[in-house]
Amino acid sequence: MSFKKAGGCRRGEIPLRTGPGGASAKAIADRIAHPHARAWAVATEAIAAECEGRWRDAQRHSHTTIQLFREAQTDVAWEVGSMYAWWLLPAQYMAGNLAELAEGAPRAAADADAVGDLYTATSLRTYLIPKMHLVAGHVERADAERAAAIGKWSRAGWHLQHWCDLQARAEIAVYRGDGLAAVGAWDGEAAQLRSSLLMRMCMIGVQTRYSLGRALVLAGEPSHLSRAAKLARVLGARDTGWAQAFAKTLHAGIAARRGERERALGLLAEVAGEFRKIDMRMHAYACDHVRGRALGGESGRQLVAAAEQWMRAHDVGDASALASSFAPGFATEN
Description:
Blueprint: H1 20-32, H2 35-52, H3 55-71, H4 77-95, H5 98-114, H6 118-126, H7 128-135, H8 139-151, H9 160-175, H10 179-188, H11 190-196, H12 202-219, H13 222-236, H14 241-257, H15 261-277, H16 281-295, H17 297-313, H18 319-326
Helix pairs in contact: 1-2, 2-3, 2-4, 3-4, 4-5, 4-6, 5-6, 5-7, 6-8, 6-9, 7-8, 8-9, 9-10, 9-12, 10-12, 12-13, 12-14, 13-14, 14-15, 15-16, 16-17, 16-18
């Protein structure tokens, strides 16, 4: 099945949208009525939706794909595990569907353990489960789980699971407020990341630049901010709303660090609205929380209160820490 060029991808990257070949594959799979073939055809729709930031569609197509794989009644542990690890659970995280994530991620990991699927178990425990723990405020548990998982993985080569672990270590450092440690983690394995060619994958490229960019904003030196601005420009050049929103978040933090308070607050207000338009509620409320603390006064308190109400309802453990990790660079008004 083929893919057509999409503007959201940079040169050399895997494109996003399924083209006529994908539709033909689905038609053929439907005609032969083979669940495994039909599952792969629907999986392309889930993958395309995820890369484009259509989180509801990604979840819907992922659920359908998993059901079709299971109906195939063959050895589909890898296929089902991969749909959970790379597409369904990440879409739930991005959309702020945290109850579903908290229920589904441990269950998927346990299912992988039960059949000896080290690939899926390692992927989940280095990619999604650390993020789940950070949302709940369990920083030490996030660090312990990713360390135990990557310790069982191969040390030969540098794989997608190594990227997951690297991102987890950087995100844990950002959550702790240690931008220099996060930058050091990314810079320390930059050569391996570059030679792995994983940055040609749109999902990896966007998440890497956003994570490193936030670490650089948090580190805060002029050289760090210049690097962050370059990453923000790359993200902003894409035609996917989530990458552009990540770019604007970085620009807001950079402006705040450079003392451009009004511009920074304006950008943060804009990006909160943009996150809402693309169903990224957790990120939207994080921006509101940070902006409210930076504004101070009654209007600021109202923003913080509304954000914390949503976060409490979704079992966020430490609203201030999570919000600051998503939108670093802002000082708090007294």
